[in-house]
Every structure is written in structure tokens, then in C-alpha cells.
Amino acid sequence: xxxxxxxxxxxxxxxxxxxxxxxxxxxxxxxxxxxxxxxxxxxxxxxxxxxxxxxxxxxxxxxxxxxxxxxxxxxxxxxxxxxxxxxxxxxx
Length: 92
Hints:
This protein is mainly α. It has one domain. The protein is built from 3 helices and no strands. The mean pLDDT is 94.
């Protein structure tokens, strides 16, 4: 497979220094940038798929009329949170 290059990028010296400061042993700046681009691509794909699923679920609920009121969901979550806090051991 032939390789391709990403456009070169001019950045402030502080950004380059910050990137270099978090490199792990043996990692190059180029490797870090490539990994960051790959992770960003995956994050955007996952977010786009999530939005598509959410819109489909909204449409399905609209067509079926089967909704759960947001206030009911929030109340249930608050009860769960309150119960979890009550079970938590106080920090010392």
C-alpha cells in the first residue's frame, strides 16, 4: 500500500512544546500526531453514528407515541444518585 502525507502544520512554539512534553518513551512527535488524528477520526465517527441512532429513535418514538417524560427519567436518576450517595462510605 502506498502511503500519503498529511499537510504540514504551523503551530505556536508553546503547542509543540506541550505535545513534546507528553510523549512517552520511544514515541515520536509524528507518531503522536498520527495517533491523535486517528483517535479524532474515530471519535467523530462514533459521535455521528450516535446522532443517527438518536434521530432514528426519536422518529420511532414519534411514530409509535411511546415516550418517557424527561422529568420522570431525571427523577429516577436522582433517586439512584441519592441511594448511591447514601451507600457511599464517607472519605477520611
